[in-house]
Amino acid sequence: MVKKVPNLVSIIRIILSIILLFTKPFSNQFFFLYLGGGISDILDGYIARKYKLTSEFGALLDSIGDFIFIFVLLYLLYPYIRLNQLLTIWIAVICVIRFSSIIVALFRFHTVAFLHTYLNKATGLLLFCFPIFFVWIGMEVTGILLCCLATISGVEELIIHINAKELNRNIISIFHL
Questions:
Q1: Residues 112 and 102: beta-carbon distance below 8 Å
Q2: How far is Cα 156 from Cα 171, in angstroms, rounded to an integer?
Q3: Which residue, 45, 67, 150, 153, is the most exposed by fewest CB within 10 angstroms?
């Protein structure tokens, strides 16, 4: 049972994400569930690495949890965000890069593969902080910072998928190929 704790934490993030769909953005309930989702994202990986409970399934479940959490946030916050044309195009380009990375991994490794690089973690952290930065410094600055980091991390992941001899979801950067 202890072996499954990190996976259970990832499942909790997925459940919190689904519940988050039914909250009003920027409300107390929203931030409570949002914080719970962020904490669970940190905890699952920490527990898995610290107690040597990592697994391919756990890494995939963590990535799926991240994807659902981010998708729910985008769905909830989109009506509040006024994206200019540049940011809209930039986000579309990031989506193309990420989708290309998934396709390359499918062809090369016969599985969907999201990597846990430092840049992907930094992007996730900045994305997690998005609602706070959005309120404090506005959409334009927050959007540019997030898009810059997301572009760099997406390109890094794509290059790793293209050049890696074997799949390593826990590779920390392109410099560790």
A1: yes
A2: 11
A3: 67
Question: Which position has the token pair 């809209």?
Answer: 88
Phi and psi at residue 53, to the nearest 5°: -110, 20
Cα 159 to chain centroid, rounded: 18
pTM, rounded to two decimals: 0.77
Token pair, residue 131, equals 């609602």
What DSSP character marks residue 171? -
Q: Which residue has the tokens 């760099």?
A: 152
Q: Select from 141, 162, 142, 41 the least CA-distant residue to 97.
A: 162
How far apart are the C-alpha atoms of 80 and 130, rounded to whole Å?
12
**Contact yes or no for 165/111 (Cβ under 8 A):** no
DSSP 3-state helix, strand, coil percentages of the chain (rounded to 5)? Answer: 80, 0, 20
Q: DSSP string covering 94-133, please?
A: HHHHHHHHHHHHHHHHSS------HHHHHHHHHHHTHHHH
Contact 69, 49 (CB under 8 A): no
